[in-house]
TrEMBL record:
<feature type="transmembrane region" description="Helical">
    <location>
        <begin position="107"/>
        <end position="127"/>
    </location>
</feature>
<dbReference type="GO" id="GO:0016020">
    <property type="term" value="C:membrane"/>
</dbReference>
<feature type="transmembrane region" description="Helical">
    <location>
        <begin position="42"/>
        <end position="64"/>
    </location>
</feature>
<feature type="transmembrane region" description="Helical">
    <location>
        <begin position="390"/>
        <end position="409"/>
    </location>
</feature>
<feature type="transmembrane region" description="Helical">
    <location>
        <begin position="465"/>
        <end position="489"/>
    </location>
</feature>
<feature type="transmembrane region" description="Helical">
    <location>
        <begin position="76"/>
        <end position="95"/>
    </location>
</feature>
<feature type="region of interest" description="Disordered">
    <location>
        <begin position="220"/>
        <end position="304"/>
    </location>
</feature>
<dbReference type="GO" id="GO:0055085">
    <property type="term" value="P:transmembrane transport"/>
</dbReference>
<protein>
    <submittedName>
        <fullName>Putative transporter</fullName>
    </submittedName>
</protein>
<keyword id="KW-0472">Membrane</keyword>
<feature type="compositionally biased region" description="Basic and acidic residues">
    <location>
        <begin position="220"/>
        <end position="234"/>
    </location>
</feature>
<dbReference type="GO" id="GO:0005783">
    <property type="term" value="C:endoplasmic reticulum"/>
</dbReference>
<dbReference type="Pfam" id="PF03547">
    <property type="entry name" value="Mem_trans"/>
</dbReference>
<feature type="transmembrane region" description="Helical">
    <location>
        <begin position="501"/>
        <end position="519"/>
    </location>
</feature>
<keyword id="KW-1133">Transmembrane helix</keyword>
<feature type="transmembrane region" description="Helical">
    <location>
        <begin position="540"/>
        <end position="559"/>
    </location>
</feature>
<feature type="transmembrane region" description="Helical">
    <location>
        <begin position="424"/>
        <end position="444"/>
    </location>
</feature>
Length: 563
């Protein structure tokens, strides 16, 4: 009776093949693009990320249109952001997320970054030659093409995609979830971002977006502008004596800075502003008792009368008598005594070193002299080349490389974390919103330079610069890097390339719009500011939606193909 339920023995291979043949049509109907979101959902994700940037930028635009946010205030905030908030952002992001182990695992990121930068540079050079740009315009196009946005827009996109797209979990991480995917994506973006910051604030700030007077072909023009500026500077002589005296001191200080009367030590050329400023600066080195001056009013309105103290003489640099500096008695004299002791110790140390140097053999003197010249040149180079973001990056790498230091700064509950680190993190949160607010104000046409202040070269080639910059940043690099990234993801045996979110990060950075911080640098160095505003408007308002859609779809196709 039970034999009707018995079947002849069958090999597992044949049974599995038969079951697979039955399920194959259903699998074929289900597999294609199962991990992809619908086109409508993807459009919504991209639109949300773009709208976030627009919402933060809009108040700056509105305030600028109301006349409360002119170009000078924008430049001030851009400088403030570079000097304070951006270094805080770099330090907190880099020092808290990195460590020695992660630096080894993420070693492939600098390779991809170098390839992307090289491709963008070659494309920019070719397009610039095609348009016939000069050196300054070519450097501007290169900066727009090389430095893409790796902060605000990509971060928003990665966080949105990690929560909504299926199939981004990494099979090499047990229990991987959407939050872990988003955290890894932010880490990858962080590495790319800091590499971009390093190149942006070094090569970009000092070379590609250098001020106009750094180019030899513009020297004559700048000299003429300087002469006119000097004429305007001496104009107050006709109005007020005080302003005229200040202008006279500024114009004559260069010629008289080397004047050295017997028995006196002239003040260096750094004291240029006014008698009050000079007194303050002199007091830093040799504090003296407060002096009172009785400046009498001019008798006939033309020639002022001096009291003979010499404090109101504007034709000669300030002469400082350091023979017997007066030091206040008691507690008030402590800072002055300490300052004098430091100066005396420096002088004694310098004299001791010189005496020891004179007793050395000639070959040793030669070597030490060469080393001293090299150290001096290196010191001068670092102080001219380095800027606050680069210093913050250097300090962050040091902190991240030393576990004990990283623990001191970022361990929850520690004194340094609750005081210093939290303060730095609070300042860091201002950097990106402030960039976007200034960007919105920069897009308001009423805050741009007037026709008299505008660079005539910008009016001649502004449209060409706009087209070339957009092509070099958002079109050609994507066409070239798409097959390169696909080959890397498929065939290069590096574990991180198997992470789907890493591939998406690489694609988003390949065709992302120009970095928002370029607007800061252009405002600071006065480089094609009007064209920069047009580039940002075209990139972040008009072309961002279709460009990001194409990048995300290409990334998802590569992830599926390489799996």
């Amino acid at each position: 009776m039970d034999q009707q339920y018995m079947t002849p023995p069958t090999s597992f291979r044949l049974a599995d093949m038969a079951q697979g043949a039955y399920d194959m049509p259903l699998m074929a109907m289900k597999k294609p693009h199962d991990s992809h979101p619908s086109m409508g959902n993807l459009v919504l994700l991209v639109f949300e990320a773009v709208l976030e940037v627009v919402c933060v930028s809009l108040p700056g635009y509105v305030v600028a249109r109301m006349g409360h946010f002119d170009a000078d205030k924008q430049k001030f905030l851009a400088n403030l952001n570079v000097m304070l908030f951006t270094p805080c952002l770099i330090f907190t992001k880099l020092a808290s997320q990195l460590n020695a182990d992660k630096l080894l695992d993420l070693a492939v990121i600098p390779i991809i970054f170098v390839i992307q930068t090289l491709v963008s540079w070659l494309v920019s050079v070719g397009v610039s030659r095609l348009f016939g740009f000069n050196r300054r315009a070519s450097n501007f196009v290169t900066a727009m093409g090389v430095f893409g946005n790796s902060n605000s827009l990509p971060i928003s996109m990665i966080l949105s995609l990690s929560q909504t797209i299926k199939g981004l979990h990494w099979d090499k991480i047990p229990g991987d979830n959407d939050d872990e995917v988003g955290a890894r994506g932010i880490l990858y973006l962080l590495i790319f971002q800091q590499l971009g910051q390093l190149v942006r604030w070094s090569w970009g700030y000092h070379v590609l977006l250098a001020p106009k007077d750094k180019y030899p072909e513009y020297q004559d023009e700048r000299v003429e502008e300087g002469q006119y500026a000097g004429d305007r500077e001496t104009a107050p002589l006709l109005n007020e004596y005080d302003d005229g005296a200040a202008a006279s001191r500024r114009s004559s200080s260069d010629d008289l800075s080397n004047y050295e009367p017997a028995g006196r030590t002239p003040v260096a050329s750094r004291s240029r502003a006014s008698p009050a400023d000079t007194d303050d600066e002199d007091d830093d080195n040799f504090p003296k008792k407060a002096r009172t001056t009785n400046a009498l009013a001019p008798l006939n309105g033309n020639h002022p009368v001096f009291d003979g103290s010499g404090d109101e003489i504007s034709s000669f640099p300030r002469i400082l008598n350091t023979d017997e500096p007066d030091v206040p008695e008691g507690v008030k004299g402590y800072p002055a005594r300490f300052n004098n002791a430091v100066v005396s110790a420096k002088r004694s140390t310098s004299n001791f070193v010189k005496r020891q140097y004179e007793h050395l053999p000639a070959p040793v003197k030669t070597v030490l002299s060469a080393l001293g010249r090299f150290a001096g040149k290196l010191y001068n180079f670092l102080w001219e080349f380095m800027n606050p973001p680069l210093w913050a990056m250097l300090i962050a790498v040091v902190v991240a490389s030393v576990p004990a230091l990283q623990k001191i700064f970022f361990e929850e509950g520690s004194f340094v974390k609750n005081s210093f680190t939290d303060a730095v993190q609070s300042s860091a949160g201002v950097a990106v919103p402030l960039i976007l607010v200034v960007l919105g104000a920069n897009l308001a046409r009423n805050t741009q330079k007037s026709d008299k202040q505008r660079d005539p070269e910008e009016d001649q080639i502004g449209t060409k610069l706009l087209v070339a910059s957009l092509v070099c940043r958002m079109l050609l690099p994507t066409l070239i890097m798409t097959p390169v990234l696909a080959i890397f993801a498929k065939y290069v045996p590096v574990s991180i390339l198997d992470d789907p979110i890493f591939v998406i990060v690489c694609f988003l950075l390949t065709g992302a719009p120009s970095a928002l911080q370029l607007a800061q640098i252009c405002q600071i160095n006065e480089v094609y500011e009007g064209v920069m505003s047009r580039i940002l408007f075209q990139s972040y308002v008009i072309w961002i939606l279709p460009s990001t859609l194409i990048l995300v779809m290409c990334a998802l196709e590569v992830v599926e193909w390489a799996a």
